[in-house]
Amino acid sequence: EGGKMAKSTQLIDNEVFRAYATYTGIVLLKMMLMSLITAYFRITRKAFVNPEDTASFGKGESAKKFLRTDPDVERVRRGHLNDLENIVPFVGIGLLYALSGPELSMALLHFRIFVGARIFHTFAYLIPLPQPGRGLSWAVGYSVTFSMAYRVLKTAWLL
Amino acid sequence: EGGKMAKSTQLIDNEVFRAYATYTGIVLLKMMLMSLITAYFRITRKAFVNPEDTASFGKGESAKKFLRTDPDVERVRRGHLNDLENIVPFVGIGLLYALSGPELSMALLHFRIFVGARIFHTFAYLIPLPQPGRGLSWAVGYSVTFSMAYRVLKTAWLL
Amino acid sequence: EGGKMAKSTQLIDNEVFRAYATYTGIVLLKMMLMSLITAYFRITRKAFVNPEDTASFGKGESAKKFLRTDPDVERVRRGHLNDLENIVPFVGIGLLYALSGPELSMALLHFRIFVGARIFHTFAYLIPLPQPGRGLSWAVGYSVTFSMAYRVLKTAWLL
């Protein structure tokens, strides 16, 4: 193992890249968790969207009543979509940022604040916490991604 | 061609990375196909969401009746969103996994199962197949991504 | 700075990769802007989806009337989702394409057309422009991504 990689780059040996891999792994797993939470609420609230998903509850009208929206399911789905909208830019811009040669301490600062803010955002959305808790955590993550994008564009700029 | 790349990394010469590029290319094209299927159903079912999209059907009430939801269109859109929720983590974690130096055979196993599961998932959603076909294919793809994330975090861990 | 990166790859020194980083940074920032536009319309149209977001407007029925959908908010959200569906494949396939050793001029052509098409698409969606303006700009971006995917699969193919 590692023999094949030796012929190519060893990005994974770079500390900034390792930090990026760690935090990206964590925040993508957190996003994936939203699918499980949605499934949990769909099953416990008996609120489905596809007719084939309610077949085990019987046929006809008895199953049809479970084809409905539920406020808790919809809340998790909104949190999931918000993750997609914010974590996708982090993963893409974060990769370019990690390859732009930042100081490890500065990179860790960016990654830690972003991932912490998104974890807080999920709790704020699901509990839910009163505003501006969720809004502020969204803005913090947004600002971190913006800060990384600034460095990427400053370092790489070739239009 | 290749001259400029010679100065930098030749990731694309690495077999694991080539496998990653191949399967990621395929699964992203599959996801893009969902847009075409949505467009196909919108046009054949005459079910649109933007008023400007129905202008060719006439003005006023005659066009307004095509501003509606259609079960088939909504089904494809749910499949598309499910793709986004699952393929985004695969692309991000898969890249880090490919750079973590796995055996080629193990990497191919992960990539093949994931892409196979997602193609099956699309058929299961669109036909639709009875459950638990769609649910299981979703769980298989989810587990593969989780397995890659485990290796990434084990290899790269730097918090 | 740069000392740590010297031990690993210097992808960022490669001109094609710098172009990729620049255009990906720009188009991801453009996508992030959709969140701000959504927030702007939610606040000016007073159209919210979470009860906790309307708490500052008072309690009970007086706040409840702001839990509603608004056509302008929904339009921006559709533009945002369309961005996700199209920019995610560009970012993933574009990275692989940039690593596949294309000529700089050819890479710039792809990146410029894609990012130009997506910026036009946003204006076409938000103004809105009459069709087929939005449809054509969508198709242009889609075709560019498809063209890059073709080169990636041709170069990297390992199934």
TrEMBL record, chains A, B, C:
The chain crosses the membrane at residues 20-41, 87-115. It catalyses: RX + glutathione = an S-substituted glutathione + a halide anion + H(+). Pfam families: MAPEG (PF01124). GO terms for molecular function: glutathione transferase activity. Keywords: Acetylation, Endoplasmic reticulum, Membrane, Mitochondrion, Mitochondrion outer membrane, Transferase, Transmembrane, Transmembrane helix. Its main location: endoplasmic reticulum. It is a multi-pass membrane protein. One of its GO terms (cellular component) is mitochondrial outer membrane. It is found in: Endoplasmic reticulum membrane; Mitochondrion outer membrane. The keyword Phosphoprotein does not apply. It is an enzyme of class 2 (transferase). SUPFAM superfamilies: MAPEG domain-like (SSF161084). Its EC number is 2.5.1.18. Homotrimer; The trimer binds only one molecule of glutathione. Conjugation of reduced glutathione to a wide number of exogenous and endogenous hydrophobic electrophiles. Belongs to the MAPEG family. This is Microsomal glutathione S-transferase 1.
